[in-house]
Amino acid sequence: MKESLKQHKQIHTGDKLHSCTQCEKRFATQRYLRMHMNVHSSKYKCTECGKCFRTNQNLTVHRQSHFAEKSFECTVCSKRFTQSFNLAIHSRIHSGEKPHKCPECDKAFSVSGNLTTHMRVHMGDKPYKCSLCDKSFSQSSSLQRHKSHVQATEDLMTVVTVERGLKVAVI
């Protein structure tokens, strides 16, 4: 079997053996991991907003959101888009259409990526690991919320300790 076909089949197994050392996100192939690493290296970084992308093509499409004419307008709320595809996705907010259904439970989603993220709950996949403790999360937003809570708790403990005149041990 050709090597490229063998690598492609890894995508369908569900096994994500390649981990990012910076954010612990996991990937099915080494190639996907390498592309992902561009997000951390700022290789493809938008000069307008600072958002980073895996590929130059993704950056080019994103830059249209800053400069291209937004010719596609929502008939309900008048929000404008550079691509008809994005208008179609947005329109689901108003229609309530949720075509991406979870095969494990009753939940449905308007965007396929949200279903992919949701499936981690059923698979027990928690690729986002806290660098402050040993907890892991299935969603990046849950990790960020946790980290801000942990940091706020640590800050409060430091303030209380200082206010009471106790010595603060810096480790």
In words, what does this structure look like?
This protein is mainly alpha-helical and 171 residues long. It has a domain at 1-67: Classic Zinc Finger (Double Stranded RNA Binding Domain). Helix content is 49%, strand content 12%. It contains six helices and ten strands. It has helices at residues 3-13, 30-41, 56-67, 84-95, 112-123, 140-163; strands spanning 18-19, 26-27, 44-45, 52-53, 72-73, 80-81, 100-101, 108-109, 128-129, 136-137. A hairpin with a 6-residue loop joins strand 1 and strand 2 (26-27). The chain is globular and about 50 Å long. It starts with a helix and ends in an 8-residue tail after the last helix.
Describe the secondary structure blueprint for this structure.
Layout lengths: L2 H11 L4 E2 L6 E2 L2 H12 L2 E2 L6 E2 L2 H12 L4 E2 L6 E2 L2 H12 L4 E2 L6 E2 L2 H12 L4 E2 L6 E2 L2 H24 L8
